[in-house]
Amino acid sequence: MAQVVAGSYDCDVVVVGGGIVGLSTAYAIGRAAPGTRVTVLEKEPGPARHQTGRNSGVIHSGIYYRPGSLKARYAVRGAAEMVKFCAEYDIPHAVTGKLIVATDREELPRLHALVQRGRENGIAVRELCAAQIAEYEPEVRGLAAIHVGTTGICDYGAVARRLAEASGADVRHGAEVVRVDRRPDRGVAVLTAAGDIVRARVLVNCAGLHCDRIALLTGDEPGARIVPFRGEYYELARPELVRGLVYPVPDPAFPFLGVHLTRGTDEGVHVGPNAVPALAREGYDWRTVRPRELGATLAWPGSWQLARRHWRYGAGELHRSLSKPAFARAVRRLLPAVRDEDLVPTAAGVRAQAVLRDGTLVDDFLIREAPRAVHVLNAPSPAATASLPIGREIARRALAGLAGSER
C-alpha cells in the first residue's frame, strides 16, 4: 500500500460509511467550509443499505433520553430540523405524534418519569387516562398514556440520497475499506477492496456496524466493541387497526424501546422490533452466520458480562423471535384485536450497539478524536432523527483536525 506523502492528497477529508450519519457529515462540511474536498467511501452499491434504510422511519421527539445527554440535545433539535429538511426537499414525511402506553400498574411510575423527562428536555406532553386513549387510537388499550405531539415519520433512505446529492462530496459506492495507513505528521491513506487508494488529511469513521473495526485499522483502540442486535419486524395485515404511532413504556435498563406500532409514509403499519443477538454484523436472519465476526463478538469480555447480567430479558426476546404467537401476545398488550395471522414477516434491521469491556451498553452517542481521525463509535437510534446536528458536530471536529494539520 502506498504511503501518504505530504502535498499528494486526493481529498481533504475521507468519510468511511455512506449511511445517514456519514452523508450528513459530508453535507455539513460542505456547508461549513465550501471548497473542502470530501470523499465518502461506502462498501454497498448504494446509500442507506443498513441501519439507515432498515429502521421504522420514526422522527423521535427526544423524550426518552437523559437530559443533557447528546441523544437528548441532538434528538430534540434534530427532529425539528429533519421535518424542515424533508419539507424543503419534498421528501415524504408527516408529524403524526405518538402514544406511549402503560398496560400494567408497575409501568405507571416509569410513564410519569417520562413525562418529567420530556418536560426537562423541552418537549410538550399530554397525559391521558385510560378513556382518553381512544381519542387517538380507538383499538389501543392501556391504564394510562402520554401523547407526544412532535414525533413524526419520514423516509430516511430518501433523506440519505438527498444529503449525498447536496453535499458536493465524491461519494463512491462499492468501496469497502480493507486497510488504513495513518501517519500523524502527514495524513491517512485508505485502501479499498477494489485496490483503490484514497489519500486524505483527515479520516472520519462513520462505519456503523463496522466502526470499531475501522478504528482498529486506523490504529486506535475504541474501548468498546460493536455487538450487533437484530430487530425483527412484521407488517400489520389490517393496518386500519392503528392510526399513528403506539409505543410501550420502555425499560430504562435497556436502550431498546420495545415492540411498537408505526404507521409509515407508505400507510403500512410496521410492528416491532424485538432485540436478539445477530450472528453476523449484517445478520438479518438466523441463517446468516459469519464465524469470524461471531468469534470476535464472543471474544469480547463485555459480551459475556452482558449475557450474564441480562439473560432473562434476552431469553424473552429470543422466545418472541422464534415464536410468532409469543410475538403476537406482546403486541396484544397494546392492541388486543391483533391476531397471529395479522402479522406478516418483513425486512429486519441490525442495531450497531457499542458494549464496553465490563458489559455496559453504551447509552449515549460516542464520538472520539485521535490524530488525523474522528471516530463515531456509537450512533444507534435516534441517530437518524439527530443526523443533521450530529453531522455538524462531527464536521466541526473534522475541520478542527484539518486546520491543525495545516499548521
Biggest sheet descriptor: 9 strands, mixed
Percent of residues in helical segments? 25-40%
Q: Using DSSP, what is the number of strands?
A: 20
Based on secondary structure, the structural category is: alpha+beta
Shape: globular
Average per-residue pLDDT, rounded, comes to 95
Instruction: Name the poorly predicted regions.
Output: none
Strand content: 25-35%
Work out the helix count. Answer: 11
Radius of gyration: 21 Å
Q: How far do the termini sit from each other?
A: 27 Å
List keywords for this structure.
407 residues, alpha+beta, 11 helices, 20 strands
Describe this entry's structure for a reader.
The two termini are 27 Å apart. This protein has eleven helices and 20 strands. It has 407 residues and is an alpha+beta fold. The chain has helices at residues 20-32, 70-88, 108-120, 133-136, 156-167, 211-218, 291-299, 301-309, 311-322, 324-332, 387-405; strands at residues 11-16, 38-42, 58-59, 93-95, 98-102, 125-129, 144-148, 152-154, 170-173, 177-183, 187-192, 197-205, 224-236, 245-248, 260-263, 269-272, 276-277, 343-356, 366-370, 373-378. The strands form three sheets. Strands 5, 6, 7, 13, 14, 15, 16, 17 and 18 form a nine-stranded mixed β-sheet that branches. Strands 1, 2, 9, 10, 11, 12, 19 and 20 form an eight-stranded mixed β-sheet that branches. It has a three-stranded antiparallel β-sheet with strand order 3-8-4, covered by helices on one side.
